[in-house]
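The freezer alarm interrupted the setup, so I double-checked each line after restarting. Inputs confirmed:
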Amino acid sequence: AQKVTQAQTEISVVEKEDVTLDCVYETRDTTYYLFWYKQPPSGELVFLIRRNSFDEQNEISGRYSWNFQKSTSSFNFTITASQVVDSAVYFCALSEAHRGSTLGRLYFGRGTQLTVWP
Amino acid sequence: EAGVTQFPSHSVIEKGQTVTLRCDPISGHDNLYWYRRVMGKEIKFLLHFVKESKQDESGMPNNRFLAERTGGTYSTLKVQPAELEDSGVYFCASSQGTGYNQPQHFGDGTRLSIL
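Predicted 3D structure, all chains:
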């Protein structure tokens, strides 16, 4: 079973629009971490944010914000006033901490291709 | 500080041949991971090193894949013999510390094409 689901395969918006990328995860652990990575056309995976399972406070970093809701097992990512440079594939990932799990092993979603048009 | 570097960036080989991918982690990072993304699918874990020791290689597809990390520095991933289904992008990542919460820093990946 998929541990991380990103239901949106592709999203297209026009510059300055707000856009939300959805991420739903599945784990039996009470302690875990969630991550978002960005993969621009150049190919590298760029770390954006890490959130632990005990901290449900939303986080804002410039035009980026993240909404973590344990009740719905979701960790959604919103870009406000999108720009062309935001065009990339965005991956949501989960790291578990139960006995026997590989420390740091990431379970990724399939990614959401975001295209921002000028 | 140099990031994670991978070589080559792109490799095209024929079925049955051998290919070796290399990863140089960030200096001082004990944890090194290999992942693979087959087209259209999620990025999947292959294996994890702590220094020179393999901690988990449960994600390795089969015994045609061999990973090494001699001396706990750079790592190599050899595919021998390569099959068509091995095509994809192979990512290497490294992190410091011993926790599961440390962000992993990824390289640009090696795009492997098997003809």
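Quick read of the result. The two ends of chain A are 38 Å apart (CA to CA).
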